[in-house]
Amino acid sequence: MEHFWSAKPDGTAWVTNYGECWQSLHGPNDLEPCVAPPAVPKEFNVRLNFEFDKYRIENIVNDGELQRLDDYIAQVNDTPVREKISLVGHTDAKGSEAYNYQLGMRRAETVHDYMISRGIPAEDIMSVESRGELDMLPGVDIYSLEQRRVTIKADYEG
């Protein structure tokens, strides 16, 4: 028994929420099969570093990592998968613990807003938090640019 793709009125194949083509015993037999959506990595990690005492997107100094984030967002937006995303803001050791906590939170919230503005659903961002100066990268100067970061971790929810 031959199966055909179910068609919309415009002649394109119907696609489920999971990106699968609907098949039917009836229907046009001249439709091209659906193109599989690009695979989304099971886990995604990126570290965005910021200028000293700054928290805006334009203050990110490692543009390559920001581009990786943009590419990831575009890839997620093109697929039906759901993500579990966590954002954690960090600072270097300059300043008080209270100030650094607030600065880390502003950095994480900036990235949160950026991701939502690019199409990530708010409900996919599970946590936005700050570690301030409390979670330093080991083996890295505590006043280094590398400490001033937001880490983004995303796991596929399948």
What does this structure look like?
This protein has 158 residues and is α+β, with helices and mostly antiparallel strands. It has 2 domains: 1-35, no CATH class; 43-157, OmpA-like domain (60s Ribosomal Protein L30, Chain: A). It contains 2 helices and 6 strands. It has helices spanning 63-77, 97-117, and strands spanning 4-5, 23-24, 43-49, 82-90, 125-132, 149-157. Strands 3-6-4-5 form a 4-stranded mixed beta sheet, with helices on one face. Strands 1-2 form a two-stranded antiparallel sheet. Helix 2 (97-117) links the parallel strand 4 and strand 5 (125-132). It is elongated and about 70 Å long.
- Spatial shape: elongated
CATH architecture verdict of the largest domain: 2-Layer Sandwich
Major sheet: arrangement of strands: 3-6-4-5
Low-confidence stretches: none
Overall pLDDT:
84
Which structural class should the secondary elements be placed in? alpha+beta
Number of helices: 2
Would you give the CATH topology of the largest domain?
Answer: 60s Ribosomal Protein L30, Chain: A
The succession of helices and strands, N to C, reads: EEEHEHEE
* CA-atom Rg in angstroms: 21 Å
What is the C-level CATH assignment of the largest domain? Alpha Beta
Organism: Imhoffiella purpurea
Keywords: Cell outer membrane, Membrane
Protein name: Outer membrane protein A
Main location: membrane
Q: Features of this protein?
A:
23% strand, alpha+beta, 60s Ribosomal Protein L30, Chain: A, 6 strands, single chain, 158 residues, four-stranded mixed beta sheet, two-stranded antiparallel sheet
Could you write a compact summary of the structure shown?
The protein has 158 residues and is an alpha+beta fold. It has two helices and six strands. The chain starts with a strand and ends with a strand.
